[in-house]
Design brief:
mainly alpha, MurJ, transmembrane, Lipid_II_flippase_MurJ/MviN, membrane
Length: 559
């Protein structure tokens, strides 16, 4: 039985779409647990001051993980590792030990510095917090500083397992990470008090690492400390990660700036932003991340082989599937925003006002969902063709747009009543306080739209025929989704008198049947338009997943 269990973890997959669907399966599983996590937090605390502190505590550890942890990300390590494994296991061992030693020393030193300066640093970053909130924030942040160290090591282990196609092991890592957090909420919170929440996060990081240990041990490549560090090799490896690290850093800096602003707004603003951001991240993980990761090894190989026509065909196919799925998600999130938030988060201390604000924020995020998903693929496309500079520059522009837009939108919202009335009326939140928080997801969406459009234009100029190839799917998916959205909206009105919207199952029934009718109509429209993506999906659904392939698992980018 044990042998069969271990063999299961060594299974491989063939085909980009099949790989994407398998990665999506793990992403869905992980996201379900993430939603359970958010449900428990919302039920227990509501969108208030405490959760503001809890979410703020992740920002410094997240930033450390993104900047230092990306040094050992799979995108960086795997090409070097594969090259050395092709020569000898001893060369691979030298790379692993050198990178591990330098990484561990650097991240521990950075974490210790952050620990020492956390009090004044956090007071500067979150000026709206009261002294009691800041005291709790410092304690939480210091505990969470363990996470980037553990997850960084897990990242390196992930590079090793993926180099041997043990992707199922890594696929379970984020699942166990969320299991640890949920365990912290259910078990640690009653036992250890509020600090139990963040100790649950640390437990999740440990589980994220431990699930990979047996596979790496079996490969006989467990990283070890070494006094004979190959510094030229380490510098070469780290230099490769710099553009990606800076690009991710800009994104996290923009989010940090938004949360810093949120700390000066009404209590619960950080929580509202995070709840809605986490909800809009579900389709990003399932669609954008899955497809971009599944296609990356293939397009990298095609570029090296100078097969540009094949490269264009593969990345265009993935882009069309991303568009096919993303636009319907956007429409569903906008039309069913209140139902989604109330079903997933509503109950306990998460009241109707919290629901309405979170739903409005979710709708604002959703407007950029299609371009956020496409951007994930295009960035991987740039990496595959050896261009790391363009995503870096565009990400810098996008981050700047987000930060500047946030200040501008807040000023406009607070000083121009016509604009404020328009936003509040559009999302039906004019009768509740704290609506200024909606300017933050609006700013994020503005930056994401700029990011997506600029990346699409530049990538299209480098890969001839790419933009033209995705237009048919875009218009087909958009047409079907708009009609789908109209039918969902009309169905909601019809079911108003059938289901009791004061109860969970009544709300779920109305949303489910309305969405079912709308989706059925959308599928019918796509069939009438002879959409190719539906044919591909149907064909892949009838093939076996468990075959062979090389898949690069997702790099965790946040603690």
């Amino acid at each position: 039985m044990v042998k069969g269990f271990l063999n299961f973890f060594n299974k491989e997959v063939s085909g980009i779409h099949q790989a994407a669907y398998l990665l999506a399966f793990f992403a869905i599983f992980s996201q379900i647990l993430a939603l359970v996590r958010d449900k428990l937090l919302a039920f227990t605390f509501g969108a208030g001051s405490f959760l503001d502190v809890y979410y703020a505590a992740f920002r410094v550890p997240d930033f450390i993980f993104v900047t230092i942890g990306s040094i050992v990300s799979m995108t960086v390590i795997i090409p070097f590792l594969m090259e050395r494994l092709s020569k000898s296991r001893e060369d691979a061992r030298k790379l692993i030990d050198s990178v591990f030693t330098v990484f561990f020393v650097v991240i521990v030193i950075v974490a210790l510095i952050a620990f020492a300066v956390s009090a004044p640093l956090l007071k500067f970053l979150f000026p709206g917090f009261l002294s009691e909130q800041l005291s709790t924030l410092v304690i939480f942040t210091r505990i969470l500083l363990l996470s980037p160290i553990i997850l960084g090591i897990s990242n390196l282990f992930g590079s090793l397992t993926q180099s041997s196609n043990k992707y199922l092991v890594y696929g379970l890592s984020p699942v166990l990470y969320n299991v640890g957090i949920i365990f912290g909420i259910i078990v640690f919170l009653p036992v250890f008090g509020l600090a139990g929440l963040v100790w649950g996060v640390v437990l999740g990081a440990i589980l994220h690492l431990l699930i990979q240990v047996p596979a790496v041990f079996k490969m006989n490549l467990i990283p070890r400390f070494t006094k004979k560090v190959d510094f030229p090799l380490v510098i070469k490896t780290f230099a490769t990660s710099i553009p990606r690290t800076l690009a991710l850093s800009f994104t996290h800096l923009s989010i940090l700036a938004l949360l810093s602003l949120a700390s000066t707004l009404s209590p619960g603003s950080i929580s509202i932003f995070n709840f809605s951001f986490n909800l809009q991240s579900v389709p990003l993980s399932i669609i954008g991340v899955s497809y971009s990761l599944a296609v990356f090894p293939t397009i990298s190989k095609l570029y090296v082989q100078n097969r540009k026509d094949d490269l264009t065909r593969e990345i265009s196919s993935s882009a069309r599937h991303i568009i096919f799925w993303s636009i319907p998600f956007t429409v569903i999130f906008i039309v069913l925003r209140a139902h989604i938030v109330r079903i997933i988060l509503g109950s306990g201390n998460f009241d109707w006002a919290d629901t309405r604000l979170t739903a409005a924020a979710l709708a604002l995020f959703a407007f950029s969902l299609f371009l956020q998903n496409l951007s994930l693929l295009i960035v991987r496309g740039f990496y595959a063709i050896g261009n790391t500079k363009t995503p870096l520059v565009v990400n810098f522009i996008s981050a700047g747009t987000i930060i500047i837009s946030a200040y501008w939108f807040l000023n406009l919202f607070n000083n121009h009543m016509v604009f404020r009335f328009f936003i509040e009326s559009l999302f039906k939140v004019s009768d509740i306080p704290g609506t200024s928080v909606l300017m933050l997801p609006l700013a994020y969406t503005a930056g994401s739209i700029v990011n997506g459009i600029v990346l699409l234009i530049i990538f299209g100029s480098k890969l001839k025929g790419f933009v033209r190839s995705i237009f048919p799917t875009f218009f087909q998916s958009l047409s079907a989704s708009v009609i789908m959205g109209a039918f969902i909206f009309l169905s909601l009105r019809v079911f108003d008198n059938i289901f009791s919207l004061d109860r969970f199952f009544g709300l779920l029934g109305q949303a489910f049947f309305s969405a079912t009718i709308g989706i059925a109509v959308g599928v019918l429209i796509l069939l009438l338009l002879k959409n190719n993506e539906i044919k591909t999906i149907w064909a892949n659904a009838h093939q076996k997943f468990w075959k062979k392939a090389v898949i690069v698992g997702p790099d965790p980018e946040v603690v």
